[in-house]
Amino acid sequence: MNAPASSTASEIRTVHGACPHDCPDTCALKVSVQDGRVIKVQGRAEHGSTHGALCTKVSRYPERTYHPERVLHPLKRVSPKGAAPEFRRVSWTEALADIAQRLSAIAARDPQAIVPYSYAGTMGLVQGEGMAARFFNRLGASALERTICASAGAAGLQASYGGKLGMHLRFFAESRLILIWGSNSIASNLHFWTFANQAKRDGAKLICIDPRKTETADKCHQHIALLPGTDGALALGMMHELIQNDWLDHDYLAVHVSGFEGPGGLRERALAWPPERTAEVCGLSADEVRQLARDYAQSAPAAIRLNYGMQRVRGGGNAVRLIALLPCLTGAWRHRAGGLLLSSSGWFAPYKNTAALERADLRAGRPQRAINMSTIGDDLLRPASPGFGPKIEALVVYNSNPVAVAPESPKVVQGFSRSDLFTVVLEHFMTDTADLADYVLPATTQLEHLDVHTSYGHTDVLINEPAVAPLGEAKPNTQIFRELAAAMGFVEACFADDDEALARQALRGIDFEALRAQGWQSLPLAEAPFAQGGFPTPDGKAHCDDALLGPADHVPNYESAVSAPELAKRFPLAMISPPARNFLNSSFVNVKSLRDIEGEPLLEMHVLDAEARGLEDGATVAVFNDRGVYHCRLSVSARARPGVVNGLGVWWRKLGLRGSNVNELTHQQLTDLGRAPSFYDCLVEVRAA
Ligand SMILES: Nc1nc2c(c(=O)[nH]1)N[C@H]1C(S)=C(S)[C@@H](COP(=O)(O)OP(=O)(O)OC[C@H]3O[C@@H](n4cnc5c(=O)[nH]c(N)nc54)[C@H](O)[C@@H]3O)O[C@H]1N2
Ligand SMILES: Nc1nc2c(c(=O)[nH]1)N[C@H]1C(S)=C(S)[C@@H](COP(=O)(O)OP(=O)(O)OC[C@H]3O[C@@H](n4cnc5c(=O)[nH]c(N)nc54)[C@H](O)[C@@H]3O)O[C@H]1N2
Ligand code: SF4
Ligand SMILES: [Mo]
User: Fold this and answer.
1) Cβ(99) to ligand 3 under 6 A?
2) Which of 135, 147, 148, 667 to mutate to test the pocket of ligand 2 (most atoms within 8 A of CB)?
3) What pLDDT, in 10s, does the model give residues 230-261?
4) Which of 31, 215, 405, 475 could lock onto 186 through a cystine, CB 3.0 to 4.6 A?
């Protein structure tokens, strides 16, 4: 049933798949194949969290795979960088030989001038950093700090808990109170919403904490529309109330938490945040803060679904660190339906054999400088220097679309347009990034290759079997790096490992045959992981003594009236740019049926802000600051709170209005912890275009 073998005419065969996208749900797929063609992609009914349902995007996965604009053979650039992109079809032999020659010449001077650039176009262990990491380690290339999404929150969780660990998804169904915090779950974490909705039907209260009145906020009992970047302050204000009203679990605190009591401890620091101060910083009323703390303390079990939206600001790391301590103060962790979930990915750590998969030993002690993917705009424009190392001379991009998704795109575009930069892009489509490549190499989609997947929203390992043969001349990422390794003269045996060997090497303690047979394997984990403490820190306790910012637990955004008053006079609106429901980051923007649902790139603005500017609903507007201009359609909407505008979705620049997207406006300053971008820490002004 799982073999990619050919089927007899008209017989429908089903194949076990896994959704490859950067989404916490990692759905189990049932892929139906007829006459060598995928005819349908559905959710596996038997899989616990997938429950037979997919989001609209991935139900359209065949439309994406069989898209008439799929790149199906290697392309070589024939127009100068900066001019309209023109490419010529070349053979794999010609492309690989030329790329190997170009990279070898650079490597002979300094291999660190070559930089891999990848993220989560696929989350698969095999097609992600499987063969690719081996290739770049053997080459001695620069490392990439993969910070663009989650590293501030990861650092916050690490500080509090010692790892990226959280509640089990399914037990949210039994919670009495759920704080949906910085998460538009209905759009971006649909299969969590199913469990939250179950709790709601059983009488639980749902509270959404989000500057935007999202589709999820519509379905919650209460919406707390705080200002962007003030979540750390809100957590401190809640703690103030928990302490003042003695809503603490003293036994849990005494045995399982360190750094709460004593001079400089969290108790003392939180007492500096009475509801009035908190309310002023957060743009809320003091009663909202008091009532939130009361609800949180008095409804057991209380659960928090935190998501990454709230950590894309200067203080994002410490905000996560503080929110993660709330269930330690109340002892919510004692119950399996209490606690917090930001990411479950740490549960997989013992089962992932990264050393075997990525083979860091192939670096053989050579130096390795790291380039932060979130500052690629600046770094491409930097000359060689002792602090920076060599100028970047070559980029190999796979599983990512940096020209659209990285912050401050005017600089990213300028960097990618350098005529002396050699860029290779492995892609399905001619994205904004592929348009600036020297070579575009056709990669397979999830329906055409093998992979294994972990998840950051649940705790199952999944397999994805290839359903059909690669289309055209497309090859899996692994195969492209295998052939590139051969062309470069790398002879180590590990470059001959096939994808199944890579999949087996990537996992340990998982029965691979059982995984194949069922399509997934669940990790054997405790139901209430921290009921008796046991955090993965050296002393087994949760830590609030890591005052990583020093005495200030909360910092205002880089761009705010508090920290940059002159800037705020010129650009008085705070802009956040959360995901669009029918795209996945910049993926699917080119799938017409999905783009038709989204319509046009939108900026949501409150009616008071629109009236103050004489702007009408539906107008084409220019959103601008000192970094750039973004053209989009204005939606005068109650989804925006006064003073905050919502620029939805990361559109492909070339499919947006006048060739721009929201990252024209974002900046490259990094978060307090984790060296991540602060996409939602951005001031703008808006005028009619
Ligand atoms: N449909 C769809 N699903 C997706 C994605 C997508 O692009 N489209 N992206 C995927 C990816 S890459 C990720 S990382 C995950 C999670 O990605 P997230 O970015 O967490 O996704 P959301 O839950 O949609 O959005 C976060 C929410 O945070 C809110 N927010 C913004 N600033 C603040 C703030 O300062 N404080 C608070 N409390 N809230 C704030 C936004 O208004 C938004 O509603 O989702 C994944 N799922
Ligand atoms: N302003 C703003 N910017 C943001 C965000 C935001 O909320 N606001 N969100 C940020 C977040 S959370 C993230 S995670 C990043 C996401 O940034 P990226 O990880 O770059 O995500 P995508 O834009 O989806 O681009 C992934 C690309 O990989 C390609 N791909 C998919 N599978 C394969 C494969 O098997 N092989 C190859 N070679 N290519 C493949 C797809 O075709 C797609 O073009 O964007 C960030 N940028
Ligand atoms: S994008 Fe998320 S919800 Fe949609 S199919 Fe993939 S894992 Fe499931
Ligand atoms: Mo992300």
Assistant:
1) no
2) 148
3) 999 999 999 999 999 999 999 999 999 999 99
4) 215
